[in-house]
Amino acid sequence: MNIKHIFFDLDHTLWDFDKNSKLTFKQIIEEQGVKLNVDEFLNIYLPINLKYWKLYRDEKVSKSTLRYGRLKETFDALNYKISDDLISIISEDYIKYLPNYNHLFEGTVEVLEYLKQKYELHIITNGFEEVQNLKMQKAGIDTYFKEVITSESVGVKKPNPKVFEFALMKAETIAKEAIMIGDSYEADILGALNCGMLAIHFTNETTPKKGVINIQSLIQLKQYL
Length: 225
Description:
Layout: E1 5-8, H1 17-31, H2 38-57, H3 63-77, H4 84-97, H5 108-115, E2 120-125, H6 129-139, E3 147-150, H7 151-154, H8 161-170, E4 178-182, H9 185-193, E5 198-202, E6 213-215
Parallel strand pairs: 1-2, 1-4, 2-3, 4-5, 5-6
């Protein structure tokens, strides 16, 4: 492999989104006096949030619809009476508080230290631009990355090839010298492969996808890179 550039996804790949998101919601539920247990809330919210992110990725809903709709639908499903105003406050507070929690996946810093000696490292993320840079700064990993490409800055989202083409251009490289590492098979892996890049799937699936390198922990990257 003649790899010179490594592109990482951020959420669910380096930054432990589920843990940080749960802590954020716990804080908001307590602050706003919402009479729900954070676990019962998340049991309903998580699949709804996934559905909205897929719609957002496919350009079928706007950012504001995603942020409001995922909460509204969750509270409706829980039969919890709540005003639109409070949903808007929770939506805003969630984006504001989320970067304050900065748990990373085990091995993140060790692997970035190891890889930076040989490769240029970058981020490609579908996450909201206003929080992604803050997340990396507060988690202490922003200095590892030369280019941070957000889908908002490109105008389309992974797996759209334009995102990967833009990222390669920004990094001043070509597809065959680059590899993508991410948790979403559709957005990260297929998106990268369709552009001629290599890809490594970070997944805890019991039946990993065939024809692609799968890892269950970031430390395993040392076996391949």
